[in-house]
Amino acid sequence: MKKFGKILMMKSEEYKKYLKRIKRDNILVLLTQILIVVIFIVFWQIMADKNMVDTFLVSSPKKVFTSIIDLIKANNFWNHIFTTVYEIIISFILGNVIGLLVASILWFNKFLARVFEPFLTILNSLPKVALGPLIIIWAGANIKSIIIMSLLISAIISIINIYNAFKSTDENKIKIIKSMGGNKLKVFTYVVLRDNYLKIIESFKINVSMCFVGVIMGELLVSKEGIGYLIMYGSQVFNMNYVIMGVVLLVILTVMLYCIISYIEKISKK
Predict the structure, then answer these.
(1) Are residues 257 and 155 in the same domain?
(2) Closest C-alpha to 245, from 87, 64, 106
(3) pLDDT at 7 > cutoff 70
(4) Domain limits at 32?
(5) 250 close to 64: Cβ distance less than 8 angstroms
(6) For position 61, what pLDDT does the model report?
(7) Do 145 and 224 form a contact (C-beta atoms < 8 A)?
(8) Taking residues 56-63, what's their average pLDDT?
(9) Residues 42 and 63 in one domain
(10) Are residue 35 and residue 60 in the same domain, yes or no?
(11) Tens digit of pLDDT for each residue in 219-235?
(12) Same domain as 145, residue 75
């Protein structure tokens, strides 16, 4: 018994060291990523100060920061941020709900799955920008058009990813539930969903970027507020500070939403 206890203690010590090593590696990766961003910004500013790049075309970190301060002083900054975030959140929620619901229906009904799979593939391959003018004519030049454009991108990809995850469920587990008298609903609840909840969260990660693409595409076409509008306005008046500022704000928002979903994924794994 004493030997067994010592072995357990040794293993637990090794496990603690292993966890510390993983934590250290994660911190090192994060610090390296931050360092790369800082080096890029500093290098960019030095290039601008030394006139090695044309700031009219590529702006500079100082000018971008000044543009943000000017927008905040003009009380316009948060309106643009709120508009884009609101559109993204609505698109993200609706896209994932539609994706999960339709994927579940297709899993339950193989006939419908066979009928609609080719249509989903075709819709996914269509360039959504080409449908933009049609959506504007049908839904009007308003927030509805932006959300519909975003849903066209995010919902279809969500349906395909989640349905493919459902199809890849271990058949042996399904057979075990069926052999115990379980119906299709129980198979779906106890096997399909439980086996694939991490894949569903992974599809949420993909959907974040897809929602951004859809919303910005819509804002470029119809919006009078939002980050997409700032980018379009900047390009129209040849103010690259606004264009670069819009891109920087998009990157920050994307990272924030991605980190939130990654945190949810981390909690769900415990």
Answers:
(1) yes
(2) 64
(3) no
(4) 1-53
(5) no
(6) 87
(7) no
(8) 84
(9) no
(10) no
(11) 888 878 888 888 888 88
(12) yes
- Report d(CA 218, CA 229) in Å as an integer: 9
Same domain, yes or no: 175 and 203: yes
Provide φ and ψ at 44, rounded to 5°: -60, -45
User: 93-104 pLDDT, tens per residue?
Assistant: 999 999 999 999
Cβ atoms 88, 253 nearer than 8 A: yes
What is the number of domains present in the chain?
Answer: 2
Cα separation, 195 vs 188, in Å, equals 10
Q: Percentage of residues in the chain with pLDDT exceeding 70?
A: 94
Phi, psi of 152 (to 5 degrees): -60, -35
Q: 93, 158 in Cβ contact below 8 A?
A: no
DSSP letters, the chain, are: -HHHHHHHHHHHHHHHHHHHHHHHHHHHHHHHHHHHHHHHHHHHHHHHHTTSS-HHHH--HHHHHHHHHHHHHTT-HHHHHHHHHHHHHHHHHHHHHHHHHHHHHHHH-HHHHHHHHHHHHHHHHS-HHHHHHHHHHHH-SSHHHHHHHHHHHHHHHHHHHHHHHHHTS-HHHHHHHHHTT--HHHHIIIIIHHHHHHHHHHHHHHHHHHHHHHHHHHHHHH-SSSHHHHHHHHHHTT-HHHHHHHHHHHHHHHHHHHHHHHHHHHHHH-
Domain end position, chosen among 36, 53, 70: 53
Here the CATH number for the domain that contains residue 159 is: 1.10.3720.10
Whether residues 44 and 169 share a domain: the answer is: no
Token output for 171: 């058949």
Q: What percent of the chain has pLDDT over 90?
A: 12
Claim to verify: residue 46 and residue 68 sit in the same structural domain: no
**Domain match, 80 and 15 both:** no
For residue 4, the model assigns a pLDDT of 47
